[in-house]
Amino acid sequence: YQQVKSFAKLTLKGETVWEKYAPMDSGVYKKDEDKVRVKRWGRDAFMPTNFAFLNDGGFLLADGYGSWYIHRYDKEGNWVSKFGGPGTGNGKFNLPHGIWMDRRPGRTERVVVCDRANHTLQYLTLEGQHLTTLRGYGLPANIDTYKNLMLIPELHARVTLLNERNEVVAQLGDDVEGVVKKKRVNRGNPKTWVNGKFVHPHDACFDNDGNILVAEWVATGRITRPLCRHSHNGGFILPRSLVVWRPRLSEKKSKRGVCAYGRQERVVCVHCPDARPRRPRPERRLAKAAARR
For every one of its 293 residues, what pLDDT tens digit does the chain have, with 9 covering 90 and above? Predict the structure, then answer.
């Protein structure tokens, strides 16, 4: 992907409206970085990782794998300004992978950046002025919000939820001990993965009902979502059980061709010891059962 070096606006049908390349007016990129598209890392390379949309139709673009700057664009996709850049101090970044506008009720609207390799979240104004830094994360990768909650997937094997005061209210699927400290879990080896524990959450979001979807950067790819919502901790919503989907490592031949079904696992929430969910049957078996009826 290092050679892509672009971002695009699409219609809901996937048709390209426009495609943009490195903003050379920013003065941070190598000559012809907007024209020569080759695989190349560096602080003068352009490899954007995420967007945050503004109220006026413009947006912020995080160049997380490239220059480590945050670029601001107007609603037409024209470059306006930049802030950030490489560093470890306030307002500087080491791989700003995720970015979001925190508009939760009761809070002043601010920019929040996942400063991944510095293991922090930074709050800033739209002009890039540093406001505060939240510490204690393990490679935070992205951000989403729902009502008063903020969702932070961490590559160090957990997903953290914060309330409107940015206090930690839950850390889901936490396996920092197994993945990071003791290194007995390998994201390239599914046999080492533990049911109910995350390995390498690279992204996460809420759906319209507040359920959580987590995408992991592991050998097969893996997506986890809540099956239902259950109240704990004074009204905070946690998943009662999880469904985990991942493709098979090797395709299985069948009489009808190649089997493309992945594997589903249901994991009971530790807060619900009374839950006794049944293992879901694969789609093929459900289809056959329906046909017999």
Answer: 788 999 999 999 999 999 999 999 999 999 999 999 899 999 999 999 999 999 999 999 999 999 999 999 999 999 999 999 999 999 999 999 999 999 999 999 999 999 999 999 999 999 999 999 999 999 999 999 999 999 999 999 999 999 999 999 999 999 999 999 999 999 999 999 988 899 999 999 999 988 999 999 999 899 988 554 444 433 333 443 444 444 444 434 333 333 333 333 333 344 444 333 444 445 555 555 556 55
Order of strands, sheet of 50-53, starting from the edge strand that comes earlier in the sequence: 50-53, 59-62, 69-73, 79-84
φ and ψ of 2, to 5 deg = -60, -20
- For 150, the 3-state DSSP assignment is strand
| Rounded Cα distance, 165 and 140, in Å | 18
Structure tokens at 31: 């000559």
- Nearest C-alpha neighbor of 92 from the set 101, 79, 83: 83
Backbone φ and ψ of 164, nearest 5°: -70, -15
Phi, psi of 286 (to 5 degrees): -60, -40
Determine which helix (DSSP H) or strand (DSSP E) holds 292, and give its type and residue range. helix 283-292
Global pTM value: 0.78
Distance (Å, whole) CA 69 – CA 60: 10
CB-facing half-sphere around the CA of 144: CA atoms within 13 A? 16
* 3's tokens: 């050679």
Return the SS3 of 260. Answer: coil
Say if residues 69 and 80 touch (Cβ distance below 8 Å).
no
**Cβ 252 vs Cβ 244: under 8 Å:** no
Phi, psi of 246 (to 5 degrees): -150, 145
Residue 275, φ and ψ in degrees, nearest 5? -70, 135
- Read off the tokens for 170: 């839950």
In whole angstroms, what is the distance from residue 96 CA to residue 62 CA? 6
